[in-house]
Design a protein that fits this description.
- 2 copies of one chain form a homodimer.
- By secondary structure, chain A is α+β, with helices and mostly antiparallel strands.
- In chain A, about 20% of the residues lie in helices and about 30% in strands.
- Chain A contains 9 helices and 19 strands.
- In chain A, strands 6-11-12-8-9-10-7 form a 7-stranded mixed β-sheet. A 5-stranded antiparallel β-sheet of chain A has the order 13-4-3-2-14.
- In chain A, helix 2 runs antiparallel to helix 7.
- The longest helix of chain A has 18 residues.
- Chains A and B meet through helix 2, helix 7 and strand 13 of A and helix 2, helix 7 and strand 13 of B.
- Chain B binds a DNA duplex (21 and 21 nucleotides) through helix 4.
Chain lengths: ~375, ~375
DNA sequence: CTGTGGGCAACGTGCCGACAA
DNA sequence: TTGTCGGCACGTTGCCCACAG
């Protein structure tokens, strides 16, 4: 075996995953939510969990785990990015030992990149790809303007390390940057359509990387012919329950563009949100980050209108999406009506980033409505 | 909702599934093998089950179930055929009540059909599809040979009820049947390659049906980004165990072209093989059916060399692939080294088809090596 | 600055019979 | 009987600029 298949370039992977996605660091402690994992299945299969699923009394709504390994992947067919994580539930002792490294988070911002949503002209067979001026100047090698017309060959590699070659030319009246020869091959090979986005990155070594981000509508509902959705839900719960009871490792796939929310988050983020951010109460104003169409970050504001268990029967006392909110823009009907504590920032004051001086000192939970909180006991035990 | 989406045409579905695939009838009793179901996952994902999977003490190696429902499906992307079955484990009483209907099996042979493996010329963009003479005369409407050249339009529907139109012409020197206009659209839409097969059926009403059967190499190893293989194995076992302990319904997907063997078989077939076919012993010669490249049936012969549990730790006393065999042709290395009792026929005597006069009279199991057999008790209780 | 469309050349697609295999 | 090929016509692809939003 000579072809040592290493995974996708991490910088490119994160660019494709989007600006909001951050993965915990290997070796740190994280919190895993079976509920969130189930939501990923629901989003991917368009089917909710059936009512007739066995209960797992030994499976709490969140598991504190050691994150042993992360590998990045991209689907061979669709280039959809996903991550494989190996988790190991921790026993009570281990949970309490504070580790500074748990604060670290892996969130790469590409050095120089651009992302463009494809227009009808970009995807049509009639022509090539129109490169926005700033984009071309920022990430592509400078053209030799003494040539007429100035042109060069662009070589870029995708998530599978496949090489794509394009002719980059500066012409037309008025002048503009274009990708011509090679572009249509790429479009048809990746089956890109109007509305999908491509992104180019120039990494530290000056190499060009090339990724795609499909429009949201496409990745909806893939009918699986292998396993019933019920078996999938059961598999998720049973695997987590078994790993928890035996303190053994288990493996999950996180699919950032399919999953409504991250369901493996740093332990520090969880503790910080649940115990330091406790001024949360009904009526409070908050902000939350969303991704814009052009791969930027934009904040939307809203008001907290209530709190309580999302699924009181199966997952009592869970912080997963325990907040009921209303969004300021009425057009934002697609946005979640329920969110989790760690997803929000206070509306007026700047967001309190997790600081090294942060401690686990216990205070009353922000809401008594949730009843006795098992986490509260864990934290009090630290004192 | 006006577009009542009904499933694929059953005749076409069976033609695509292959001549060896037969589905039990709805309402009858069947035997479900979690082991076989796991093998389907293994074949689809190219990953064996991990050793660290919880044991399910309440889950025997086979479950006698009532088959409540079967729906036929075809993958939207690949046209891969699969069936969804709703099963309900039966209690001891129900298992014993003999039902004549259990003997029935649903095994459709298409009225008139042909299947051709595509050549390089068939799939090239340079030309059309060369129809074998007999095939054209058997399934296509007769041409009007008074025309020069004789030609007509062929309309056929695929598994999704999508209509495909082709120009059928009889020309060339020497004369031959060809599909020209429309063929390349079909090839590129279905992404057919040399080695894949197409099949045409003329049903009772004279309508033409059109299916594809991809070469084996293609459907191997699809990397799933949704669920770890461990979670899938656990999901299968936990779902079956839960259904068994609560006598509730559960759902499985059977993928005939991916799965090495059928893992839901008629109860009568199981009993007949395990208790009536008991002359099986090491050294015995046998025959077994295989599918030929051209969608026919061919028998291969071999010798039984041993028997015993495939997985003595997890699945003791299971009849699933309990026979160790050697095949006569040395080139047949790909064929299974282990098969199940109900897959074989005696080599010399004609295969004893399940007859209405068949009874459940208990005799000693064919091998004492398997130890006390829970089924034996079930059967004795009938007397 | 960049999306779309007309013009036009080059290329690929696809229909034909001629050959073998 | 049928797989592949050379020949050839025609339709599509794809590069160019002009225009306008």
């Amino acid at each position: 075996m000579e072809g040592v298949k290493r995974g996708p370039n991490p910088e490119l992977w994160h660019a494709c995953a989007g600006p909001l996605v951050s993965l915990p660091s290997v070796g740190t402690r994280v919190v895993y939510f079976p509920q969130g994992h189930s939501e990923q299945v629901a989003a991917s299969t368009q089917k909710e969990a059936d009512a007739d699923i066995p209960s797992y009394p030994n499976l709490p709504p969140h598991l504190v785990c050691q994150l042993h390994n992360i590998t990045l992947h991209a689907d061979t067919e669709t280039d959809e990015v996903y991550a494989q994580m190996t988790l190991q539930p921790m026993n009570a002792q281990e949970k309490d030992s504070f580790m500074v490294s748990d604060l670290g988070r892996q969130n790469r911002q590409p050095s120089e990149y651009f992302c463009k949503t494809l227009t009808a002209s970009d995807t049509s067979t009639h022509g090539g790809f129109s490169i926005p001026r700033r984009a071309a100047e920022k990430v592509f090698p400078p053209l030799d303007f003494s040539q007429q017309p100035p042109a060069q060959e662009i070589v870029a590699r995708d998530l599978h390390d496949t090489e794509w070659r394009f002719r980059h030319i500066y012409r037309g009246q008025p002048r503009r940057h274009l990708l011509t020869t090679g572009w249509s091959v790429f479009v048809s090979a990746k089956r890109l359509q109007t509305g999908d986005a491509v992104l180019f990155i120039r990494d530290e070594k000056g190499q060009l990387l090339l990724g795609i981000r499909r429009a949201n509508r496409q990745q909806a509902s893939m009918p699986l012919s292998l396993l019933s959705t019920d078996s999938m839900y059961i598999g998720i719960l049973a695997a987590a329950a078994h790993a928890n009871s035996t303190s053994s490792r288990f493996t999950i796939f996180y699919n950032p563009r399919a999953s409504p929310s991250e369901f493996v988050i740093p332990l520090s983020k969880y503790y910080n949100a649940v115990y330091n951010n406790m001024q949360v109460s009904p009526g409070m104003r908050f902000r939350m980050q969303f991704e814009t169409e052009e791969s930027g970050i934009r904040r939307h504001t809203g008001t907290i209108v209530g709190s309580g268990d999302l699924d009181p029967v199966r997952w009592p006392n869970s912080h997963w999406r325990s907040l009921k909110v209303e969004w300021d823009e009425p057009a934002a009907g697609e946005k979640q009506q329920r969110i989790s504590l760690w997803e929000i920032e206070p509306a007026s004051t700047p967001y309190l980033v997790c600081s090294p001086s942060f401690t686990f000192r216990s205070k009353r939970p922000w809401s008594q409505a949730l009843g006795p909180n098992p986490i509260a006991r864990e934290v009090e035990a630290v004192d």
